[in-house]
């Protein structure tokens, strides 16, 4: 997006907000009208004309010739658009029982300071590999979820469901479901360092906009998992995703996202934004040693091989895939450990999605690739 295009966007957004009382969605779209969406649009327009000191983050993304991630500053919350701190991983108990864990906090500053009407959403999910059971919880709160005195670097986020803290790869996760079935307390240490996706951490989604995006794909985890009131010592590995930007405000955008952790030390991030006429796709291959490699959409092929229809919502999702990375000569078979890993999050983030722990095995004879993955399938049609 050029600097001139960003200036046009600012002017267009302001005009639309001043003359429109609600956000109107085209009739061919499955996305409903949203009061929250209108508030976000209004916030963006206000940020376009308030002084730079009130929200320099927004003006930076919209006017910089080449926006980029700046660490450790960008670990902390921003004052515009939408953003999230997203952990997915696998842990095992001392007796070898495996669990997948998802813990995430979403943030939308609906109105700029000094009003500070902030929207905070948290999701927490656990899948038991042995039993094949899946449980999740969600929370929505308006107001501040930040400590009164935020840390000089990093983040400290406290919602009723999930509490997250992190600074330069030293992170903590605390979460507990309201019914008491699962609680978790983990310390995480980044083994590899941050990986900036796209161009210095700024990645394009085609017609769906852009965002800042970096990951910590290999975070070693130690701590406890509480299962029905009994605390178990666990160890494992997590993938941390950090995204933010003025365009990340549409909770009904459809996408597929893969984070793959191979036992040989390689990590892979892939995403696809499907469209009626074309799809926007990209990714990053992170070798065990050396610099990450950006993947274009024609560098990989994701082919569903099995499907599951949710008895809760009637939505049909793929639950097994063949993933081919053409430049790396890799063919992987990705399979959900449990088909039912759907989150009906309409009470919090307004959408429905499938987010599941998967096994990874070789998809071609003679290859011995293995590992685990998390796959997210957002807003599939009902």
Description of the structure:
With 382 residues, the protein is mostly beta strands. It has a single domain, classed as Beta Barrel (AttH-like fold), CATH 2.40.370.10. It is built from three helices and 22 strands. The chain has helices at residues 3-19, 35-49, 56-63, and strands at residues 82-93, 98-109, 118-128, 133-142, 155-158, 162-167, 170-176, 182-190, 195-196, 202-204, 210-227, 230-245, 255-262, 267-273, 280-286, 293-296, 300-309, 316-325, 330-336, 342-345, 351-362, 370-378. Strands 1, 2, 3, 4, 5, 6, 7, 8, 9, 10, 11 and 12 form a twelve-stranded antiparallel sheet that branches. Strands 13, 14, 15, 16, 17, 18, 19, 20, 21 and 22 form a ten-stranded antiparallel sheet that branches. Mean pLDDT is 83; it is low at 1-53.
Gap between N and C termini, in Å? 33 Å
CATH topology: AttH-like fold
Domain count, please report it: 1
Number of helices: 3
CATH class: Mainly Beta
Structural class: mainly beta
**Sheet having the most strands:** 12 strands, antiparallel
Mean pLDDT metric: 83
Helices and strands, in order, run as HHHEEEEEEEEEEEEEEEEEEEEEE
Kindly provide the radius of gyration, computed on alpha-carbon positions and rounded to a whole number of angstroms.
20 Å
CATH-defined superfamily: AttH-like domain
**Can you tell me the residue ranges where pLDDT is under 50 for at least 5 consecutive residues?**
1-53
Number of separate strands: 22
Strand fraction equals: over 45%
Helical proportion, percent range: 10-25%
What is the CATH-assigned architecture? Beta Barrel
């Amino acid at each position: 997006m050029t600097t001139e295009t960003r200036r046009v966007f600012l002017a267009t957004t302001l005009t639309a907000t001043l003359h429109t009382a609600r956000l109107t969605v085209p009739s061919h779209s499955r996305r409903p009208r949203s009061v929250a969406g209108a508030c976000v649009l209004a916030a963006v327009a206000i940020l376009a004309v308030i002084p730079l000191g009130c929200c320099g983050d927004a003006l930076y993304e919209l006017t910089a010739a080449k926006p980029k991630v700046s660490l450790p500053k960008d670990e902390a919350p921003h004052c515009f658009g939408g953003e999230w701190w997203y952990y997915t991983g696998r842990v095992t108990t001392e007796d070898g029982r495996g669990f997948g864990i998802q813990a995430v906090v979403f943030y939308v500053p609906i109105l700029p300071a000094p009003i500070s009407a902030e929207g905070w959403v948290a999701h927490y999910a656990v899948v038991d590999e042995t039993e094949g059971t899946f449980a999740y919880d969600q929370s929505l709160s308006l107001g501040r979820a930040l400590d009164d005195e935020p840390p000089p670097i990093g983040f400290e986020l406290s919602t009723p469901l999930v509490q997250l803290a992190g600074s330069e790869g030293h992170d903590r996760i605390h979460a507990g479901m309201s019914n008491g079935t699962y609680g978790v307390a983990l310390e995480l240490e980044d083994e590899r360092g941050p990986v900036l996706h796209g161009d210095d951490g700024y990645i394009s989604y085609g017609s769906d906009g852009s965002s800042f995006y970096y990951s910590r794909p290999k975070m070693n985890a130690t701590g406890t998992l509480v299962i029905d009131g009994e605390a178990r010592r666990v160890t494992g590995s997590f993938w941390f995703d950090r995204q933010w930007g003025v365009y990340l405000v549409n909770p009904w955008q459809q996408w597929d996202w893969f984070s793959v952790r191979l036992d040989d030390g390689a990590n892979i991030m892939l995403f696809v934004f499907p469209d009626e006429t074309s799809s926007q796709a990209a990714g990053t291959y992170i070798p065990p040693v050396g610099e990450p490699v950006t993947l274009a959409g024609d560098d990989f092929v994701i082919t569903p091989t099995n499907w599951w229809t949710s008895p809760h919502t009637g939505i049909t999702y793929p639950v097994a895939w063949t993933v081919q990375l053409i430049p790396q000569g890799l063919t992987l078979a990705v399979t959900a450990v449990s088909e039912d890993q759907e989150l009906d999050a309409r009470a919090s983030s307004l959408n429905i999605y499938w987010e599941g722990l998967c096994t990874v095995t070789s998809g071609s004879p003679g290859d011995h690739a293995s590992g685990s993955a998390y796959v997210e399938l957002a807003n599939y049609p009902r």
